[in-house]
Amino acid sequence: AISYVKTGYSSVRDSIKEHIPIEVEIKRVREMIKDLKPEIADNVKLIAREEVEVAKLSKEVSTKNAGLDKSKTAILQLKEDLQSGKRFVSYGGKTFDMDQVKKDLNDRFKHFQTQEATAVKLEKILAAREQNLEAARRKLDVMLDAKRQLEINVENLQARLQMLQVAEASSQYAINDSSLSRVRETIDEIATRIEVAEKTLDQQD
C-alpha cells in the first residue's frame, strides 16, 4: 500500500511539473542561482578572515624563530666563554664570574627549549591552517565555476526556448495553399489533354 501511495504521489508531482510553463521554470532556476550569492559571499568572507589570521600566525612564527636564533647565538657565546678558562667575562659593560655565567647559561637554555617547543607547535598549526585555507580556496573556485556554468546553461535553455517559440509561431501562421495547388493541378491536366489532342490530330494528317 505504501508503495502505491508513493507511486501515486510521484505521478501527481511529475504531472504538475509537466503543466508548469517552461518560462516559469527558467525564471525559477535563475532565482535559485541568484540565491547562491549569499552563500558564496559568506565563504569569501570566511576565507578572507582566515587569510588574515594565517598571516598573523605566520608573522608570529617568524618572530618566534628570529627570537630563537638570537637566543641561540647568545647561548653559544655564553658556552664559549664558559669553556674559555677565564675567571671573569664582561657583557654590556658589566663583569660576571663563571658561576654567574653558568647559571645564566642554564636559565637561557631552559627558556630556549620552552620557546623552541612553542615555535614547533605554532609551525604545525600554521601548516595545518594553510592547508585548510588552500582547500577552502579550491572549493570556492569550484563553486564559482559551477555557478558560471549554471548561468551559461540557463542562457542556452532560454535561447533554445526562444527558437522553439519562433518555430511554433511560424507553424501556427503557415499559409494554406491547398486551393492554389488544386488550380495548378487542373491547369496541368488541361494542358496535357490539349497536347494529347494536338498530337492525335497531327498523326491523322
SSE topology:
Layout: H1 2-19, H2 22-34, H3 36-82, E1 88-91, E2 94-97, H4 98-172, H5 178-204
Antiparallel strand pairs: 1-2
What would you say this structure looks like, in words?
The chain is mainly alpha-helical and 205 residues long. It is 88% helix and 4% strand. The chain contains 5 helices and 2 strands; from the N terminus they run αααββαα. The chain has helices at residues 2-19, 22-34, 36-82, 98-172, 178-204, and strands at residues 88-91, 94-97. A two-stranded antiparallel ribbon has the order 1-2. A hairpin with a 2-residue loop joins β1 and β2. The longest helix has 75 residues, at 98-172. The termini are far apart. The mean pLDDT is 84.
Features:
205 residues, two-stranded antiparallel sheet, mainly alpha
Number of helices: 5
Biggest sheet, in brief?
2 strands, antiparallel
Would you count the extended β strands for me? 2
Rg, Å, rounded: 45 Å
Low-confidence stretches: none
Mean pLDDT: 84
Helix/strand class: mainly alpha
Series of H and E elements: HHHEEHH
Gist of the model:
With 205 residues, the chain is mainly alpha-helical. It has helices at 2-19, 22-34, 36-82, 98-172, 178-204; strands at residues 88-91, 94-97.
